[in-house]
Design goal:
CATH architecture: Beta Barrel
CATH topology: Lyase, Ornithine Decarboxylase, Chain A, domain 1
Number of strands: 11
CATH class: Mainly Beta
Distance between the termini: 5 Å
CATH superfamily: Lyase, Ornithine Decarboxylase, Chain A, domain 1
Order of helices and strands: EEEEEEEEHHEEE
Strand order of the largest sheet: 1-4-7-6-5
Shape: globular
Structural class: mainly beta
Strand content: 25-35%
Radius of gyration: 15 Å
Largest sheet: 5 strands, antiparallel
Length: 138
């Protein structure tokens, strides 16, 4: 998370000021956007795991930033947010983005920018390759 600020009820955030705060809340800014493969069509339609909670992405996805309504969740600048993770652990998964965009999962993963860090894990129990991609932005 790159920034955290309080907005008052009625204040608007992001491109076009399309999202209006329904109450006084805190907005976290994440340094990832459509240049990284986070499609604008996902604006306001995905969740982000931050501070151990699932929180709504709000406003329009911009080229290099996205906003999350964190409310009173205990978070701080520099904390890692999970946009795409392991659905078996309750984290947001590629299938959620694909369903929101009425497409297939491969279109989502193929659209992720080379700017994003990738961490490949080897499955210890089989010794085989496990191509889990962890998108850690922080």
């Amino acid at each position: 998370m790159s920034a955290l600020r309080t907005v008052e009820a009625g204040e608007r955030v992001s491109y076009g000021h399309r999202w209006e705060a329904p109450r006084r809340t805190r907005i976290a800014t994440l340094p990832v956007g459509y240049a990284d493969g986070l499609r604008r069509g996902l604006s306001g339609r995905i969740r982000v795991r931050l501070g151990g909670r699932d929180l709504p992405q709000v406003g329009t996805v911009t080229m290099d930033q996205v906003m999350v309504d964190v409310g009173e969740t205990d978070v701080e600048v520099g904390q890692v947010a999970t946009l795409l993770g392991d659905p078996a652990k309750g984290e947001p998964g590629v299938g959620e983005w694909a369903a929101a965009l009425d497409t297939i999962e491969y279109e989502i993963t193929c659209g992720l920018s080379p700017r994003l860090p990738r961490v490949h894990h080897r499955a210890p129990e089989t010794g085989g390759r496990h191509d889990a991609v962890q998108e850690a932005v922080g």
